[in-house]
Amino acid sequence: MSAAISIQRLSSQDANFKPKLLASLSLPMADDAAIDAAVVNILKQVQSEGDIAILNFTKQFDRLNVNSVAELEISKKDLEQAYLQLSPKQKSALDIAAQRVRAYHEQQRKEAGCHSWEYTEKDGTRLGQKVTPLDRVGIYVPGGKAAYPSSVLMNAIPAKVAGVQEVIMVVPTPDGARNSLVLAAAWIAGVDRVFTIGGAQAVAALAYGTKTIPSVDKIVGPGNAYVAAAKRRVFGTVGIDMIAGPSEILILCDGTIDPDWIAMDLFSQAEHDELAQSILLCPDATFIEKVQASINKLLPEMPRKQVIETSLKNRALLIQVKDMNEACDIANAIAAEHLEICAANPRQWAEKIRHAGAIFMGNYTSESLGDYCAGPNHVLPTARTARFSSPLGVYDFIKRSSMIEVSEAGAQTLGQVASTLAHGEGLQAHARAAEMRLKK
């Protein structure tokens, strides 16, 4: 039998609990300066050399030696063929997931302030807001060792539901290895163009444009540290969704569920990478021991055992709390990406949650269902940014323009107000522009 996995235990009743918790939430410092310097160089070369730089970097990093960037584009016919050649089971799974993601975001478009509106005041002045979709969006999809067709659906479908005219996908294919599920997902989601490039160079191409790859208005989608650094650098030239960190799961549990389920849910995030974080909050010390036993029992059978074990040893937390009310308070302080509430009355506790990327309620709502097919978006804020940001959605692919049409009567009233304030700011031209429209 394998040795027990050592996972950090905390108690909310300890005198130094808060500083210990905050320290455990902090990520180890990466070599950010070296990554940023490399990214700056890549961005500059793509901006100045365009396609030539893309070809050179693709040869260097993905070991693909082609004569033109056009050779790195996958045709729509090839995307369709990738879909048609899937097994019936894979095809059905992608179809169902896409339908559910599309249905959810169609509802979101109706309910989340994604439509134009206006109202008319008594004097005839009309005020409102015009909502329009972005023209062109780029989505980054990780490739190489990992393949994420679900990320294609989650990034492309809301853009299409929002009305984005053109969605361009970039995905690295090291050594030319293409993933059929990823390409099939692009076909189902309605992606318009696909280029097999990745890394910071792909972000640069989308941001600045090259002879072959058009520039976009916004870049969304996850990537490695170089992709994240590139997105941070090009923000302002284009929009971005967020700077995503390692994946996280926080489970609030009252001890009324099978501990094996909780152990596997903790694994579901730990298997992403060694920096992923899995946390359990529970008032029942005996149940926490059962979860620890389940972890020791189930881990040896996991294909990604080494990754899970490293993640759990370095970043996981098993925390005993006073009660579920306190668990909710701690959850709000953590503001996790994924929050599971495994309890007899999950909605009672969900009402107390203010900060979480996505809330999974009830013993049968595993986080993995949200990752693939429940419908809501799985692109979520990490590293406590759920305190001020939201899941990717239709609202990320639209923009708002204020609409102002002042009537002659309205100008008499508003003109006086504007004139007074403008003179107070020392902006006489502003004041006179308003005053000229006043009746003598």
Automatic annotation (TrEMBL):
Q: Which reaction does it catalyse?
A: L-histidinol + 2 NAD(+) + H2O = L-histidine + 2 NADH + 3 H(+)
One family name in Pfam for this protein: Histidinol_dh
Q: Which InterPro entries match?
A: Ald_DH/histidinol_DH, Histidinol_DH_CS, Histidinol_DH_monofunct, Hstdl_DH
CDD domains in the record: Histidinol_dh
- Write out the residues that bind substrate: S247, Q269, H272, H338, D371, E425, H430
List, in alphabetical order, the Gene Ontology terms for molecular function in this entry: histidinol dehydrogenase activity; NAD binding; zinc ion binding
Question: According to its UniProt record, which cofactors does this protein need?
Answer: Zn(2+)
Q: What is its EC number?
A: 1.1.1.23
Associated pathway: Amino-acid biosynthesis; L-histidine biosynthesis; L-histidine from 5-phospho-alpha-D-ribose 1-diphosphate: step 9/9
Q: How is the cofactor bound?
A: Binds 1 zinc ion per subunit.
Q: What GO terms describe the biological role, i.e. biological process, of this protein?
A: L-histidine biosynthetic process
Annotated Zn(2+) binding lies at Q269, H272, D371, H430
Question: Keyword annotations for this protein?
Answer: Amino-acid biosynthesis, Histidine biosynthesis, Metal-binding, NAD, Oxidoreductase, Zinc
- Could you name the active-site residues? E337 (proton acceptor), H338 (proton acceptor)
One GO cellular component term, please give it. cytosol
Chain residues that bind NAD(+): Y140, Q201, N224
Similarity annotation: Belongs to the histidinol dehydrogenase family.
Q: What does this protein do?
A: Catalyzes the sequential NAD-dependent oxidations of L-histidinol to L-histidinaldehyde and then to L-histidine.
Its protein name is Histidinol dehydrogenase
Gene this protein is translated from: hisD
